[in-house]
Amino acid sequence: MSQWYDVIFSNVRPCLMLNYSGYHGDARYSCDDINECHDQNLHQDCLAHTDCVNKEGGYDCVCESGFEGDPYQGCTDIDECSGTNDCLPEASCSNYQVSFFACDNPH
User: pLDDT by residue (tens digit) across 6-15?
Assistant: First the structure.
């Protein structure tokens, strides 16, 4: 590309260049990021137990605290009882959703 092209188009906003769906405005006087996380219809691929995180020109889905996995395939509860926990050896561990477990004393 020629140098004049680079100078002229270096400040063009994404909504003018690509008609990018993550922005709104006329591209001449305004070009603002759309917060897709404020409208469930704009981030439908974020599944159960996920949070929508807005970013410039789009968004990401992340697993909620206490859940793990691929947020676009499904997040599952982290089983705090499956590994090391604070329960005494004679107590049983009961896992509950959202980063919670209980130690059940057998006596």
Answer: 434 444 445 5
